[in-house]
Design goal:
With 324 residues, the chain is mainly alpha-helical. It folds into 2 domains: 1-184, Farnesyl Diphosphate Synthase (Orthogonal Bundle), CATH 1.10.600; 187-324, Farnesyl Diphosphate Synthase (Orthogonal Bundle). Helices cover 73% and strands 1% of the residues. The chain contains 16 helices and 2 strands. It has a two-stranded antiparallel ribbon. A hairpin with a 2-residue loop joins β1 and β2 (91-92). α3 (42-53) crosses α8 (158-184) and α9 packs antiparallel against α15 (280-299). The longest helix has 28 residues, at 123-150. The radius of gyration is 20 Å and the shape is globular. The two termini are 25 Å apart.
Length: 324
């Protein structure tokens, strides 16, 4: 077994060999650009790690890991168009650097390329990977649509929000881990359990992202703190605050989340104060811990050594206490 950082390094080295240098340039250059923008590479790292954990050769999982990363970045290209986002990881988004039509078409090509990567596996493995990928890709689209719908709704519930982040974020983490298990030839039971582990970890990851967006350190978070507040996103923090606040403070929160001031400093500070005073901030940290511990409880059902369970637990703890 390698360290998580080593799996990440190995994947990044493999990714560099994937540069597509062919015509038409305006289709493939944006793909190379978005894939080289960096990021945590969390999902492909998990694919390699899981293949190793179940006794496979992690090098055999490179193409599945790359498929997950290409798909993830495809979704980011299209999300950025939908959000009219100017920046991604501190650099111009694809549709800003080129144009919207290029972003749509290059994104479409990335989705096809993600499927193509499964062709490197023998038929039985190809079928299992493609079946899981199709299910996951559709759920990610469903999650994105829920997210869009919630922007204009004022009656979003906690359970609806959790379903949205499960589909938009967590299922891709879960699928990344199950793909590693598939390639390693793990049993169906172990595949199912590692999927559930990844899904719960993915929900905790997104809740942590919600929390860090409001309360993270600007020096380490990597993006603007308070971005969700500026965009009036109905995150777990917001929904819990609405649940806990008295009617007067609830009206203040509602007013804040229907405003778009040029200088959002006051809006961010007042909202954060309401999140803290209501108990929403603490409730969010509690939920992060609960989903992480739910993931850890699934480890007991995996047919792997205690050392490997400990490695997965350490990875989960790292995510729970991260600052970026």
């Amino acid at each position: 077994m390698l360290s998580t950082e080593k799996y990440q390094e190995e994947f990044i080295a493999y990714l560099k060999t994937y540069a597509i240098n062919k015509e038409p340039k305006n289709l493939y250059e944006p793909i190379n650009y978005i894939l080289k923008l960096g990021g945590k590479r969390l999902r492909p790292t998990l694919t390699l790690l899981t293949a190793d954990i179940f006794g496979g050769q992690y090098a055999k999982a490179f193409n599945a890991a790359l498929s997950i990363e290409v798909f993830h970045n495809f979704s980011l290209v299209h999300d950025d168009i939908m959000d009219d986002a100017p920046l991604r990881r501190g650099k111009s988004t694809v549709h800003e650097k080129w144009d919207i039509n290029t972003g749509i078409l290059s994104g479409d090509a990335m989705l096809i390329m993600a499927y193509q990567l499964f062709e490197n596996y023998e038929p039985t493995t190809f079928h299992a990977l493609a079946k899981l990928f199709s299910k996951t890709a559709l759920e990610v689209c469903e999650g994105q649509q829920y997210d869009v719908d919630f922007e204009t709704r004022h009656d979003v519930t906690i359970s609806e929000y959790l379903k949205m982040i499960e589909y938009k974020t967590a299922v891709l983490v879960a699928a990344a881990m199950q793909m590693g298990a598939i390639i390693a030839g793990a049993s169906n039971k172990d595949q199912s359990n590692i999927y559930e582990f990844g899904k719960n970890l993915g929900i905790a990851f997104q809740l942590q992202d919600d929390y860090l967006d409001a309360f993270g350190d600007p020096k380490t978070f990597g993006k603007q703190v308070g971005g969700d507040i500026i965009e009036n996103k109905k995150t777990y923090l917001y929904l819990k605050a609405k649940e806990f606040l008295n009617e007067t403070d609830k009206k203040v929160l509602n007013q804040l989340f229907t405003s778009t001031p040029k200088d959002a400093t006051t809006k961010i500070e007042v909202t954060k104060e309401l999140f803290t005073r209501s108990g929403s901030a603490e409730a969010t940290k509690k939920a992060i811990k609960e989903y992480t511990e739910k993931a850890f409880s699934i480890l007991e059902n995996l047919n792997i050594s205690e050392l490997k369970k400990s490695l997965l637990k350490s990875f989960g703890e790292h995510l729970m206490y991260r600052t970026v």
